[in-house]
Amino acid sequence: MSKEFKSVEYGLEKIFEGAQDFLPLLGTDYVEFYVGNAKQAAHFYKTAFGFQSLAYSGLETGVRDRASYVLKQDKIRLVLTTALNSDSPIGEHVKKHGDGVKIAALWVEDARSAFEETVKRGAKPFMQPTVEKDEFGEVVRAGIYTYGETVHMFVERKNYTGAFLPGYKAWESDYKPAPVGLKYIDHMVGNVGWNQMNTWVKWYEDVMGFVNFLSFDDKQINTEYSALMSKVMSNGNGRIKFPINEPAEGKKRSQIEEYLDFYEGSGIQHIAVATDDILTTVADMKSRGVEFLSTPPQAYYDGIPERLKDHMDKFKEDINELQKLGIMIDADEEGYLLQIFTKPVEDRPTLFFEVIQRMGARGFGAGNFKALFESIEREQEKRGTL
User: Fold this and answer.
1) Is the separation of the CB atoms in 122 and 207 below 8 Å?
2) Taking CA 283 as the corner, what is the angle to CA 306 and CA 386, rounded to the nearest 5 degrees?
């Protein structure tokens, strides 16, 4: 069983009680990527990840500087945005960082209040509260910067019935690949530079009212060659979780250093998407061309019964089937989880996805860290960046 919860002095409910849920956050509203070619990116996420067409904004809707394609799968909304001219800040963002996450939008009851409260506590404004209207009602949005050039957008949509946001039209498409079973965003992980993790932990505590409910140091997250440190931040109701990573000293360059080099700054490293049937989801994604990290060695799977001994009576999956797909398993006091990580989804070795199925566990797979990072290091070695 993973030891990740041993650093928490009190139970999770006690920890979450310490959160100042003054916003409050109702969930993840959408994640917006700035990309070089949104039309092609949308086709990729439809084909490979099973997303469905939802809404579109661009020249045909009166927008002159950008095109945005909105995709949906269950509770997950992705927005893929590209610049339409050479002097666009969107294009400059892509030039510097490559395709990546610009906005992690948070669903709130009152966007004006969320903006005012966070700015009062020290947040840097990105967008003042703005009311957007069309025939379906109105949406209020406001944004603040977090680490790097990443933005949290507060979205208030209680008075809106349209497909997505004002300025978008429903996107009807004849191409409708079936979903793969992704349900919602479980968490999003940010990478920050050397000695910046605690700065951003304090920022989330002070500005957003979050709590740090899990911490991992370089003694827990290391391999023969590299190490990193991580702290998990969560809001009061536990719906929003943002782990924050920073590099640690090692013999060679860690995955965090590789990310910072190629992203050219701090940003969102991976998005964890939840499923109720990880075996079916991953098999489907593989058949559609999604590439995952290499399978852990045989000894890893041989050790699963011992690692899950407190939960084997509830363990329903076939270990051989998990091994065939390279899915990893870990447990905590609450239950177990299954997880797997894609390779980077673009040419720069930056953004990737995690697929996770929780069977009671509330942790992040600390027992898998060593196997996971060794797998990432094998990919780094191929790229010449280890």
Assistant:
1) yes
2) 70
Q: Which strand (E) or helix (H) includes residue 88?
A: none
**Gap between the Cα atoms of 218 and 205, Å rounded:** 22
**How many residues does this entry show for the chain?**
386
Residues 6 or more apart whose Cβ sits within 8 Å of residue 375: 293, 294, 296, 341
**Collapsed DSSP state (helix, strand, coil) of residue 364:** coil
E strands present in 254-302 = 267-275
More confident site: 26 or 379: 26
- Asked if 342 and 353 touch (Cβ cutoff 8 Å), the reply is yes
Q: Do 35 and 82 form a contact (C-beta atoms < 8 A)?
A: yes
- pLDDT of res. 222: 54
Helix axes 255-263, 369-383, angle to 10 degrees: 50
Structural contact between residues 152 and 206, judged by C-beta atoms closer than 8 angstroms: no
Determine the pLDDT at residue 16: 52
Residues 6+ apart with CB under 8 A from 239: 25, 26, 27, 28
- Whether 290 and 344 have beta carbons less than 8 Å apart is answered as no
CA distances, 243 to each of 49, 130, 211, 238, 360 (Å) = 23, 29, 11, 13, 19
Q: What ranges make up the beta strands (E) of 137-193?
A: 137-145, 151-156, 169-170, 182-191
Report whether pLDDT(41) > 80: yes
Q: Are 55 and 179 in contact (CB under 8 A)?
A: no
Distances (CA, A) of 34 to 43, 146, 150, 221: 15, 16, 11, 31
C-alpha 360: how far from its chain's center? 20
Residue 194, number of CB atoms within 10 A of its CB: 12
Which sign, positive or negative, has the C-alpha torsion 77, 83, 89, 94?
positive
Strand partners, 360: 336
How far apart CA 314 and CA 334 sit, in angstroms, is 12
Phi and psi for 54 in degrees, rounded to 5? -125, -55
Note whether 66 and 82 are within 8 A (CB): yes
Q: Over the stretch 88-135, which tens digit does the pLDDT of each residue have?
A: 999 999 999 999 999 999 999 999 999 999 999 999 999 999 999 999
